[in-house]
Amino acid sequence: MVIEMNKDIEKYQESVVWGLTVKQLLFSALSLLAGGGIVLLTYQTVGLTTAAYLAIPVAAPIALGGFYSYHGMSFYEVTRRRIRQLFFNRTLLYRSPERNETENRKKKKRQKKKRRGET
User: Fold this and answer.
1) Side-chain half-sphere CA neighbours of 102 within 13 A
2) Which end of the chain is more exposed for a tag (fewer CB within 10 A), N or C?
3) What is the rounded average pLDDT of the residues 29-53?
């Protein structure tokens, strides 16, 4: 009796329909509904090609939410971290120990000069 198992158990995904997971199927349906709805609402006024171009920026992020994964993070987590890194990252300041030592030496020399000048 042979039982087949994935080599990497952590990457195992149970498929529901057409090899898609529940998350992928849900986000695909939402993406199709959003994109199709935009096309149906706008194609009479702006034309089919322009309506499709308007629907793509709305449908693509929804679809990526179900399919994209990077280091175990979803598309939305990666995007949130990337935006935070680009715009809200505070600057880090590194002060080397050598710099502090040279500043301390200079201060000591100034203090010695002042003492010598006073006496």
Assistant:
1) 5
2) N
3) 91
Residue 88 to residue 54: CA distance in whole angstroms? 29
Amino acid at 63: A
pLDDT (average), residues 57-78:
87
pTM above 0.85, yes or no: no
Cα distances from 68 to residues 27, 53, 76, 92, in angstroms, run 11, 22, 9, 31
In order of 18, 22, 90, the CA distances from 5 in angstroms are 20, 21, 46
> Exposed (0-12), middle (13-18) or buried (19+): which is 66, by Cβ within 10 Å?
buried
